[in-house]
Amino acid sequence: MVGAFLELCGCGGRVGDTKRGKTDRVLYVTNIGNDTVSVVSVPAEGDSFSLTSFGSRTGLSGPGGIAVDGMNQEIVVANAHNDSITVYARTDSGNIAPVRTIVGPSTGLGSPTGIAVDSVNDEVVVANEGWTSILVFSRTASGDVMPLRTISGSSTNLREPTDL
Q1: 24, 42, 104, 110, 131 from 6: Cα distances, Å
Q2: In the structure, what pLDDT confidence band is assigned to residue 146 with cuts at 50, 70 and 90?
Q3: Which of 29, 52, 75, 102 has the most crowded CB, counting CB atoms within 10 A?
Q4: pLDDT in tens, 41-97
Q5: Neighbour count for residue 60 (Cβ, 10 Å)
Q6: pLDDT computed for residue 24 by the predictor
Q7: Residues 6 or more apart from 120 whose CB is under 8 A from it?
Q8: CA gap 66, 83 in Å, rounded
Q9: β-pair partners for 39
Q10: pLDDT beyond 80 at 115
């Protein structure tokens, strides 16, 4: 699974020229094959260079879903291989450590795949494929924390949810 998130820049930390009415777009892409995130300019084509990327010491492990929180300038990634959620500053690059990580038995994470950030209500919502559930965490949660809410059960019709 490859996750991607398209962002129109021009809102704090813009990537390109917005003075002439032009808004640059960037695409955040999770790469499960090498546990990295690439940030590429749109419209990139062919063998284009990524603007930035990060990996190695980042805690990424089977990254799938990705969300960009423009209000708080963060990137949030669901990691299916180590049952975690990692958070990075939107401008991070290289082999950086996450700002926060949600991981551990209390989290209820099992192959999390899709992810979304609700900046208004300060929540992170995760499609938890391994346990056929949707988990909701505080946006600023870190460590081995319990979710605020869990959506699961036969009435939900959830069957291995993979995206949000």
Answers
A1: 11, 9, 30, 26, 28
A2: very high
A3: 102
A4: 877 677 777 777 776 678 889 898 999 999 999 999 999 999 999 999 988 878 888
A5: 24
A6: 66
A7: none
A8: 14
A9: 28, 52
A10: yes
The bridge status of strand 36-42 relative to strand 25-31 is: antiparallel
Q: Are 129 and 144 in contact (CB under 8 A)?
A: no
CA distances from 5 to 24, 67, 77, 97, 110 (A): 14, 6, 11, 21, 22
- What single DSSP character describes residue 94? B
Q: Which amino acid is at 131?
A: W
Question: E-strand spans in 55-118?
Answer: 63-69, 74-79, 84-89, 100-103, 112-118
Q: pTM surpassing 0.85?
A: no
Question: Whole-angstrom Cα distance, residue 47 to residue 45?
Answer: 7
